[in-house]
Amino acid sequence: MNFKELKLNKPLLRAVAEKHYNVPTPVQEKAIPLILEGKDVIVSAQTGTGKTAAYALPTLQLLFNNQEGAKKGKKIKALIVSPTRELAVQIQESFKDYGKYSDLVSTVVYGGTAMEPQIAELKKGVDILVATPGRLLDLHKQGLVNLDYVRTLVLDEADLMLDMGFIDDVNKIERLCPSGKQTLLFSATIPYKVVQLANSILKDPTEVAITPTSLAAARVHQLLYYTPKSKKIELCLHLLENTIKGNILIFRRTKFGVDKLEQRLLDNNYKVETLHGDMSQIDRQEALKRFKNKEVNIFIATDVAARGIDIDHLDNVLNFDLPNIPETYVHRIGRTGRAGQSGTSYSFCSAEEKEYLISIQKLMQKHIDVVEDNPFPLAPNAKPEVHKRKGSKHRKGRKSIASKKKKKRWY
Ligand code: AMP
Predict the structure, then answer these.
(1) Which domains does the chain have, with CATH numbers?
(2) Which of 84, 87, 139, 203 has the fewest CB neighbours in a 10 Å radius?
(3) Pocket probe mutation, ligand 1, options 3, 6, 19, 184, max atoms within 8 Å of Cβ
């Protein structure tokens, strides 16, 4: 299938061609026709599947026919609610890119930064507003945002929105929009609370499911290193020095962990950027920009801070700590191997994390390849239950860097 067959209009096809998208991704193929028909949809798709275009393209097309030309007096007709500031900024950039051959105007509002410039943009008149929940309600309370003309409401990363405690805000926002609107709910996972939200606000929704696990499994070369917790930093330094090529996003579970690793890498003369919840908005955007511009090759982040962030051409992901929620593993490794490119994920598993690994492999329905060429291995009896193949050996001690990686599956 190509984009023409999705019945997108010429200005959108031209913008898509300029982005060098050759064919629609599976989520685009499934969701775009439904949204163009005016249906409410609930879509389970993670970042990296092309989900933003899956709602942005049809939303733009639906607005195309009703353009008002002059900016002043424009009404907000599409509202996209996103849990994080970074994601909101990226979504608006996508709308700008895809809508560049139209007169449709979009803007983004988010908290943690001055309101005035955002108010000035709103006053110029916008068709499409991308917003984080708190700032949107703030601006609405001040009479600076009118949601009476919204025809399309998109809730992006709904699961994260609920995890971050935005349920009341989301319900409030939904009620502020007209009842006849079309609602599109996108979520990486569909836990029960997302189903409850969907039941309460969507009208006869059509479900679109894209299996993230199979997508991730197909595109990302996943490698596993068993290593004691106390040796993870050494192993990380060893891999950065000898194995890992290109840029890398390193995940840690806590902000403390991010800071600690950053310091060790700086001490070893690596250029590093970090992202965690306590940073100011400006610092976060600057850090992300330096990584995206390839001024630094190493980026360390917590899950919440990094969720939804789109980095083109990410070569590697390192799970320094294994996540305790298996879906998080899929989100993390899905950052690399995007849109047709291949990528590599490295995961460190300590004795304390073996339960997490078992859940991850169950979800992935795949055993991750264990790298035996590991100078900092776990003692064999500390590994999860391993059924060795005949003749395989646990290796100990520092191996020659030049020696080939030897991988083994465990069952
Ligand atoms: P998303 O899942 O929306 O975060 O998109 C992930 C990445 O895929 C972004 O960099 C998009 O620009 C890119 N992308 C979206 N749709 C396509 C497509 N049909 N072909 C190639 N790349 C795409």
Answers:
(1) 3-210 (3.40.50.300), 213-404 (3.40.50.300)
(2) 203
(3) 19
